[in-house]
Every structure is written in structure tokens, then in C-alpha cells.
Design brief:
- This protein is mainly β.
- The chain is globular and about 40 Å long.
């Protein structure tokens, strides 16, 4: 497992629509590296493009909250729908180190994604 440097705002890969994952056979080491990189940067989520990998893949670890007690991996994700009043939260981003902004997000988001076993959820 390895720590990969997080790319910062201004890098074109952060605005790119990333490629869908078609070959799942070599994903585990990439996912392990993403978790190592996220923990090293003291984040709670990280997308593959944030470490320069052109792949529709992101991970989260919110085990520090009461909402979840496991980590999650989302592959080939897309937003299906949103609803509810928008709420404003202060958020940070590992690609914008040291900056936290108030961001407006929908109360509910329905996401379609695959897991490492290639099952759709």
C-alpha cells in the first residue's frame, strides 16, 4: 500500500468527467492506496481523480460519526435524483488544503453505483 500525493485545485483532472471502470481485476490495490492517501491527508473522503487517476471511483470513511461504522467504496457512480430543501454545510476538500467553504447541498441524494464485487446499488 502506498500514499499518493493529492492534486490541488487547478489541475485539469479535477474538472474532467472520469472514465468508467470496466476492469475490476486490479482495483483492490488502488482502493487500498486511496484509503492510505486519504488517512495520511486526514480526510474523510477521496476520489481517484484527486490523486491523478482518471477513474470514476471514490471512497469515504465516516466511522467517526454515529451514521456509519464502515468504510464505503463507490465505483461508476452517478446521481439519480436529489430532493428536499438545500442545506448549507461547511466543507473542506483535500484538493483545496486549508480552505473550508459553506456549500449548499440537497437534503437527499439518490446515487447509483457499483461495489468491488461489481454489484449495482
Amino acid at each position: 500500500m502506498a500514499v499518493i500525493d493529492v492534486v490541488h485545485y487547478g489541475n485539469p483532472i479535477l474538472r474532467k468527467v472520469c472514465n468508467l471502470v470496466k476492469d475490476f481485476s486490479n482495483l483492490e490495490p488502488i482502493i487500498d492506496d486511496l484509503f492510505d492517501s486519504m488517512y495520511e491527508a486526514e480526510g474523510i473522503g477521496l476520489a481517484a481523480n484527486q490523486v491523478g487517476i482518471d477513474m470514476n471511483l471514490f471512497i469515504i470513511d465516516i466511522t467517526h460519526t454515529e451514521e456509519a461504522n464502515t468504510t464505503h467504496t463507490f465505483i461508476n457512480s452517478s446521481i439519480v435524483s436529489t430532493n428536499g430543501n438545500k442545506e448549507i454545510f461547511q466543507e473542506g476538500c483535500l484538493s483545496l488544503p486549508g480552505i473550508a467553504l459553506e456549500i449548499s447541498r440537497p437534503k437527499k441524494v439518490t446515487l447509483r453505483y457499483q461495489t468491488l464485487d461489481q454489484e449495482w446499488h
